[in-house]
Amino acid sequence: MADVTITVDGKKITAPAGALLIDVCRKAGIEIPAFCYYPGLSLQAACRMCVVRQEKVPKLQTACTTTVAEGQVFFTETDEIKQARKATLQLLLGNHPLDCPVCDAGGECELQDMTFKYGAGESLYAEAKNHRDEQQWSPAVFYDRPRCILCYRCVRMCGEGMDVWALGVQNRGSSAVIAPNAGNELHCEECGMCIDVCPVGALTSGSYRYKTRPWEMNHVATVCAHCGDGCKVTLGVRQSSEGAKIIRADNRDKSGMNGDFLCAKGRFGFDFVDSEKRLAKPMIRNAQGKLETATWEQAIRVAAEKLSAVKSASGGEAIGVIGSNFATNEEAYLLQKFARTVLGTNNIDHARTADYARFAKALAGKPGRSAGIQDAAWAPAILLVGGDPTEEHPLLAWNLRTNARLSKARIYIANTQSIRLERQAKATLKVDDYAKLGEMLAGKGNAFAEAVKGEEKLLVILNGDVQGAALDALLKWGLDREGVQFALLGGAVNSRGAADMGLLPDSLPGYVPVNEPGAFANEYANAPKKPGMALHEMLQKKLGALIVQGTDPLGELGVDGGSLKDTFVVVLGAFESATTAVANVVLPASTLYEKTGTITNNFGDVQLAQKAADRANVKPDFEIIVRLAGAMGVDVRTLVPFGKHGLTADLGQSRGAQAGEADRHAVWLAANNLEPKLSPFDPMALLDEIERLVAGYKLDRLNLFAGNPAKAEPGFVPVSALAGSGTIQRATAGLFTTPGLSQYSTQLAELAEHESPAKAVAAD
Amino acid sequence: MTKNETSPETMSIFSPALSARFDKLVGKYPLRRSALVPMLLYAQDEVGYISDAVVAEVAARIGITELDVRSVASYYSMLRFKPAGKFNVQVCTNIACMLRGGYEIFDTFSEKLGIGHKGVTADGVFSLEEVECIGACCWAPAIQVNYNFHDELKPENVDGILAEYRAKTPEGGR
Amino acid sequence: MNLEELNQIADAVRAENGKYDYAVNVCQGTGCLAQHADQIQAAIGASAAAAGKNVQVRRVGCLGFCAAGPLAQLEPEGHLLKGLSVARADEVVSSLGGSPPPGLQCELSELVEKQVQVVLENSGKIDPEKIDEYIERDGYQGLVKALTELRPVDVVQQITESGLRGRGGGGYPTGLKWGMVAKAAPGQKYVICNGDEGDPGAFMDRSVLESDPQRVIEGMAIAAYAVGASKGYIYVRAEYPLAVSRLTSGLREARRRGFLGNNICGTPFDFDIEIRIGAGAFVCGEETALIASIEGLRGVPRVRPPYPASAGLWGKPTLINNVETFANVPPILRKGGAWFAKVGTAKSKGTKVFALSGKIRNTALIEVPMGITLREIVEGIGGGVPEGHSFKAVQTGGPSGGCIPAELMDIEVSYESLIQAGSMMGSGGMIVMDDSSCMVNVAKFFMEFCMTESCGKCIPCRAGTVQMFELLAKICEGRATMDDLDLLIDLCSTVKEASLCGLGQTAPNPVLSTLRYFKQEYIEHIQNKRCPAGVCTIKHEEVPA
User: Fold this and answer.
1) Which residues of C touch A124 (CB under 8 A)?
2) What is the domain class of A356-489 according to CATH?
């Protein structure tokens, strides 16, 4: 729409005609207070806080319903307006309990802030307040009716935003009240968005209430550990005797690529860090076959000696390495580099949840074909193939719903089952399997296919269960057309990163084939060129030694531990598991919330995870691997480039990079204006190397370190990349389940129990 | 009378006639839920009040949530979630009636029946309600018993009115 | 159907009526029915048969003089009988042709002479359930004329010329509203008749719907033709069962005669009407709330714009007018806008129906020309306050209006002058108060009404009405201070200025108008702990010395 110029408080502002005044003002830095207005939700004009004076209009106008037009003149902070807002606040406070000192929202309460700003502190209305007891609606949601100011944000967020419609308004007038969908209980997705948008302390979080005060916490923004969408989550952390304890998780400043959104797992599933199953100390299996605690030095030494022994006795191929979908990119990269260059094995894999290698191979050499997760919120048309994002990828589902609601995006769904997003879909196609879908789309005469092909710009989102030939056919169909972008959905938080970083038996980082290592030939001296064993093979082949990092292959794959009877098993992990039960050395590792590194989401958005919590005696996998390598007698500089060694002497010109004598890393750092990192335990040192060597990872550091996503680009993957081989294991995530993680969260278990079919029967 | 059981013929808690009426009603509007308020009124006329079963069946018939039905139903003062008496005495205490003694009439009913606003007598015969203007201002004070008007009342008329209705109950008829 | 056929129907009715020597028109409005007017009608019929008199005993709509019911009117003499009972049926029959039985005759002069009947022209004259009787009194000539002689734009022009303004209270020019809907993008449009009459003390719409339903149906059909709508809804309160049943049979009759349905009067015009029943929510009288209610939502108002004229029911252009507004339409079409504009003041044309109630001798449903003075209504038509009392004020406009004191009794009735006096026209309730009425208590009553009827959506109305009520209760009970009064005044302006819809914006009016004219009564309650009218129970608290 055409731009218009309006004047607000004497300042000229240009904005698109028809935009809401409140948005225009906020963008221009003019704060307009509001309770009921919430961007993206339907307009209420109920709280009357956003009143402004428009020139030549007799009554005060609400900025949330006023659309801007050329030449309008507004005043937003005159005495008259301040008085009107103050009067409204006084009315609200007339029945609002002044229990701020014990209210969870104290310090983060919009009503408190506005009362402070407009000086409505004194109580004008002396009549008795209408007290009601607090209600617990679910393990996650508590409602304190007297505190409620009836802004209806929660009702609209639940309905319009989440498409759950579990909250309503009942009765009328001063008896009006927010009501949950099952009598006195709430049965829903337990996303907690209602708590998040509540401007006061009427809706409070079961996991956080009465735990602390907001100003007593540090707030650390990091990446949610649960699914591959990669929401930014802010962890509220308080110092405790055992380190730094996470008190809550929320979406505090809404600055992440998830915008307003956070799901139940992100909000309530942080307590895995305090699971009873956390490994507290290193352990070594003693002569009696029992695991006993040990010091870090002992454990590392025992592991290193045995690994060295197996390698010298049977060669690197007798050792297997299983990595994780939950580790950072730097850890995954380090683990495979350690396997290939220190252990001398290509027996390295992880539990794959989507065929990213095949995806990368198809997109190699074709930049601009890979979408970011925010594109799902903006793309004019989306083809969603397979999966159920509402359950497995809540942010993606949110983006799709928001896009359909606010931008009228056309969503096409092809699925073997019926999924909730069909309610937002323009067309739905039931398929028996995805193998014929590519062909069908390419063919003629099918109404669904014709509609999809009628789209000039299309985002194709493929669930991880679209594999093999089916995946190839769909990618080919889309790549043959202009304006089509793709995403492939993996299961866990860093499924994409694990594959991108080369936790694969046949591919180096960036899907470079092990037998044609290219630049890696110089970097990974002596790395084996023959592809190694895939995950299942390693578990069956009775290897001499097996390193398992951050995963529980025995438990998750249901493999019998007996096959590892004669294998020396080293586990780096955070939790007790079926695998630790058969381990020879157990090394307790940090969880994602206790370390720093980068994470790549399903869409290739790379984000920085930051250390929030701290726990005595556990170490990040990164540090453990470095120490293991050190104990094996390796110069850890060959694994992690750190310090100033070699840099000042030679910038690589005099003797030539090909000679192998130049410090290529130092040259690269200098060329990119980066300082060398000073510690071998600093994962950022490897981020530098990743950027230097992994083709798709040319990251915008400014954005990355500002807490924004930086996009990885599979289009830069070499065209020689290998299509994947090996099995894709899919354990499906749910609203409260993350395979490999949620079993350690008590809060998620409670939510799952509350929402179990038997209990939720009263809800819809 | 309260009726919450599903009849086997219609698979509905409503009578066949009302079921048929509902079938017609929900298909009538551009949006099915537009039939909601009339359905609740008719259901209340038949069942006596908006019972949980009424909420559930109306929600299912329209295809909205029970919460949605409750949110709407609780907004309207004529819809009730508890059974009323067989005879629901609605006393207007709005301005025209108030000026002419509406509250005295209400208080007399309240005293004679031993119940207050929205109360139901123990035998379930009478319930009492204070209501807004029933448009009988010229004959104030006025009351409505179910859909019958009685107007220009004085407190001494109350006994007669109660007797008139009590006579209509099976017990009263004997 | 054309004019000729209408005349044939009318002639048939006249021929039928002409067969009788006498007619007894028994009022069967709600008030008279409550006093068993139906049994009285049956008794008179039986008595006439027994006496062998050639009498037509007819059911008619409200005869207006409600305080004196049950009523009947005798033809051809025109005597109005009051206080009828079954026991006196024989007397009535035997008096036919002579003077009415003793004690039953009403003195009509004052009641009738100041009135001008347009909307109520058929009320008490026809059987509300017989469409042919409506046709006999020129019914449907307006619609036939519109459909066969006028373009939609000409119809709008007639309404604009008439100067008719919304009778629901706001007084928005009807022609302008019709023009907006007519100009909205073509496609599905709706006409809604707002019969959610909720103002305390107002029952004009009820009476019109009960006494002359065809008039409203015809008005809606004309409107639908003018704006291009094909579907209409009449929203009636569930508290008005008789109105609903008369409308139901009225719609059936209208369909039978071809005034509703497809190809009305042989033209391409299709239109039908459905009744929607409210479930008890005053706010549903607000147009956007009414639309929400029909859509099956909580009947809460929403922000305007968009106005219903552009996006109303189910998002389509929608014309909403009040019952009385539509009831004015048929005669305007029949006789022309200019005819209508002859009655009234410069800016308020035509007549207005009022329900006169409260502390007044003749409670009645009346129709008066705009421009009449309040004194003429109260003292003339209403006969003043009961013996031994003195007139104090008249309340108009329901909870949105105000109390006009005795000293302003000579102002004329028009939209502007009533607003100037701190009240408003409203839908037509006119409640008279005398020295036994406490004005603070009246203000408290209206505030309580607004508080219970507030939908609760916006803060000023939801919380403000509660606090205003509490303050008024405090004043009534003698617990208040002068600071409380100041707080009340501030609160009035907050709620008035900041509320979302009309209910909230006008909720303080009863307080403001009583403060304007009867502030001394407030002060008496506060400073002297005394209710001048003796209505309020002052709680005397021991003040420690």
Assistant:
1) 487
2) alpha beta
